[in-house]
Amino acid sequence: MLFVLGQWSFYGIFRCPYPVPFVDCQVCPVITCWGRITSLFWGLWLFVPLSVILFGRAFCGWLCPGGFVNQLIGKAAIFKLRTRNRFSKWAPLGLCLGLAVTLFLWLVLGNPRWIIPIRIGEFWPSIGLSFEHASTAWLIRTFTVLGLVAAGLVIANLWCRFVCPTGCLLEWFKRVAIFRVFKTDACNNCDACLKICEMGTRPDEVNCTNCGDCLKSCPENAIKIGRKRM
């Protein structure tokens, strides 16, 4: 599943002719030629909302290929930012900025085509053709995304924690999730869970993806998974 979505993600970054990938695949000549429009495009946009209702932002923690790459890069990051401070409190607002820019490009500008899709030859040579024939706007968009992902070498998981527009949407809607990882009243705020979290957060707080890595970290056994009583 990760491999299939990962292949699609590479197309979204390097071959997609639109500034906002994954939203106009039904009219894209590249992915239509690839023959995956039904299984991937409609499947993804039906699966993601369902996954949010059931498990909150679990898609980010378990299936997103971009999240997987960011976590790998984050392991070599200079700053893990696994502490509670003003920066870690306010920086997630960058997710809203990422979503605002995405909605502006998609809904206000109409997601204009910035390159002419060229599908020829092997995978990497075809990517080279995309860069060779891309407009300046497409190059700025692509290098901005790649730069922010690479910035994960400085701040761990920077894209997922502070930029990703999809993550912002899932963050908003995850509060309706039926199942989640959460803290009980036994929590004494020792932050043992925070210190092992790749996303630098605590259960059921901003940027928690229900990955479950913290389940055995609590000395008070205050972290549970399942339905949370309100």
Can you give a write-up of this model?
With 230 residues, the protein is mostly helical. α7 packs across α11 (165-173). It starts with a helix and ends with a strand. It has a two-stranded antiparallel sheet with strand order 1-2. The chain contains eleven helices and two strands. 30% of the residues are buried.
Please summarize what this structure is.
Helix content is 50%, strand content 3%. It contains eleven helices and two strands; from the N terminus they run H-H-H-H-H-H-H-H-H-H-H-E-E.
What features would you highlight for this structure?
single chain; 230 residues; two-stranded antiparallel sheet; elongated
Number of strands: 2
- How much of the sequence is in beta strands? under 5%
- As residue ranges, the low-confidence spans are none
Structural class: mainly alpha
Largest sheet properties? 2 strands, antiparallel
Helix/strand order, N-terminal first: HHHHHHHHHHHEE
End-to-end CA span: 34 Å
Radius of gyration: 19 Å
Q: What's the tally of helices?
A: 11
